[in-house]
Records
---
Amino acid sequence: MTSLYPLEIFVRLTRHRRWFAAGMAAALSVLGVVTAGSARAAAGCRVTYTVTNQWQGGFGANVDVVNLGDPVNGWRLTWSFPAGQTISQLWNGGYTQSGAQVTVTNASYNGDIPTGGSASFGFNGSWTSSNPVPTSFALNGTTCSGTVTSPSASPSSSPSASPSASPSASPSASPSASPSPSPSPSPSPTGGPWPPSSTYSNPVLWEDLADIDIFRVDDTYYYSASTMHYSPGAPILRSYDLVNWEYAGHSVPKLDFGSKYDLNGGRGYVNGIWASFLNYRKSNKTFYWGGCIDFSKTYIYTATSVEGPWNRHTTINKCYYDAGLLVDDNDTMYVSYGNTNISVAQLSADGKTEVRSQQVFSTPSSVGTLEGSRMYKRNGAYYIFLTRPANGQYVLKSTNGPFGPYEMRQVLLNMGGPVSGGGVPHQGGLVQTQNGAWYYMAFQDAYPGGRIPVLAPITWTSDGWPTVQTVNGAWGGSYPYPNVPRPPRQVKSPTGTDTFAGTQLGPEWEWNHNPDTTKYSVNNGLRLQTATVTNDLYSARNTLTHRILGPSSTATIQLDYSAMRDGDRSGLAMLRDSSAWIGVRRDSGQTRVVVTNNLTMNSSWQTTSTGTEVASAPVSGGRIWLRVNADIRPGTGRQARFSYSTDGVNFTAFGPAFTMGNAWQFFMGYRFAIFNYATQSLGGAVTVSRFDLTTP
């Protein structure tokens, strides 16, 4: 694990909000009482203390206070560190510390907390033997008790009217997101300037999210991506500033395209959802997703909310290959599609059938292949945005209607990308902000991690052609922050803790193929019953996957294996066409923790090796923590390392490092994967109590 010095972390967090949001590793919510200066004020609050990242001897944390009572004018939060931790730097407030006792006071810009509002601050600190979270807080002198006081309650000591004399660092843009599986309910990022910094950095999200379609509805941006054989398919991401994104839903609830997507008599690896379209039709307030499956038929799904429910709207008996959807000014829907020969189809008014289809362009042999259509209209002209895989982007333009004729111009070719070792940014979409600026969201090949989104501003020539704004002739590593309105709330951090509360998985999770829904449940934990008898992880149903966050991140699961049966295998994998895992095996009544590597597929995605056990140790007690740290910077020789713990605190490095493959042919990048399968008979089960994703 790469260590960052506290000052370096501080600079990154205060200048780039997404790095701050990306560090959340563990959280503790404490319900309590806030008492303002008036004796007649009703008061109550919720405090969330989050360890955002941790390294040897040091850590970062965020504290969020939500006011449940009457408005607060000036606040002071106190607590005692349980293991001698000390604060070294703090932002969004002032602080003093005497021994274990800590007092944090508001900054000049966040002292007022309205009813339902929140105030947040963050800090870097040091620890020695351990770093447990504080268990008790007091706000304005009143110990948190989990209730709201009545107006007749006794007054607490008066809060400090101004920050401590100790200067604070530059304010963070917004508080860290809640670690719950659902987006943070915080009403808005409060305090500090907007935008949070003068620039943003690429990639805007270091996760495998390729074949991008992007658009805006009012003040909200949406982004769709490919998922191939993962289910549910076609994830939808949401943003308010084009820089910070959260998972919102999936357009395809189930890969309902044949039994191979159920791992039943076949496999759907590297088939399924790719290069599809997503757009919004204002006339009926409906989102439309469409994609060609298995080079055969095009399926269209609709919903009035990205969270769903999504339903099959129609099936069109032809393949709209690599398609893009335009909803024209007169509400007519057009689909651009094709490889080399590019066509445009007009859909019926209800979007269920094709009215007309016509080839509108044939790619010159000097260019080669063009595909990945995205269709737009600007100033009366029609555009089809096309990629030359995997090193170029071109655009077609028609001033004579959607069916052309079209002219072609090169947008970029062999342009350097912002992520060292990665490929050329290409195959994405254009989007216009509320203030009229245009941006291009592309992906950059970055294996073994996959294809990651990068964002650049676009300008238009006087005769109406798009131009990527470059930095020293390349796609910039940073650009001026988009000029958009302040977001209404903080989006959910890509890191943090999922305790699988509620009864459904969060939208960041996807299964390897369709799951057997009778063999898992979510209810304050994820219970996985064995769903397949096999000795092959690639053939096992109900393997749950999560994207890896780059450039490196660590996944940890807490696993209750007490209900496993002989022959069962359960654990945490690095999943791709070459894989490895750390997990628990039960054989002949004996339980061991093991590392298995050398799981491989051939180019037809058939299993060529079910793996080799390379480390083993006996375990008992029924509970274990399994951890994988993955370095997914683009290039060869990148490694994942395994460790385990029997107490959740002290981890033991285990087995050899696993070297990941970085070939592109599997398309999808490596994922963390939670699995449980049987090699003898069904009936066993495990429970995953929590999943933690941390960086670095």
---
Amino acid sequence: MMSLSLIASAVWVICASVVAFLPLRYQRPPGLLLLLIAPVLIWLLYRDFGLPAAAIGLFALLSMYRNPLTYLLHRSFGGIESGGPRP
């Protein structure tokens, strides 16, 4: 029988794939929810299967969310100005 963490991770991947098919303006709320759930799932994978499974999960998360995470990091350190395009 599969563990709950593995089933939840598989459901997360399916949900992320469905969100990827949405138009860009509709991706933000479900994408943010998936991003907030991911650390819990990675911790569950670590608890049930150890460091290799958690490392694979973390690598997959960083790969899928590299652009939004880069944007958030730049924004949090003041690298990206909010507002319109620069002249």
---
Amino acid sequence: MPGCRSTISANLPPIRRDRVELSRYVRLRAVPPRPANENRRSSAPKLWHWALAIGTAPTIGIALALSILI
């Protein structure tokens, strides 16, 4: 019956663990959970590469121009 929730194992004593296993709680290199309202792609482009290139371009250009003049 769907309304009946009793199980056969209810008579057994609960299994007790003496030590805590961190592997049950710590997930290394796993994809973090995402909120339901996040619309970004999971593999969004890394914009910091472009920001770094745009920021260093004038410095490299000036250094190159000075090296040609000297």
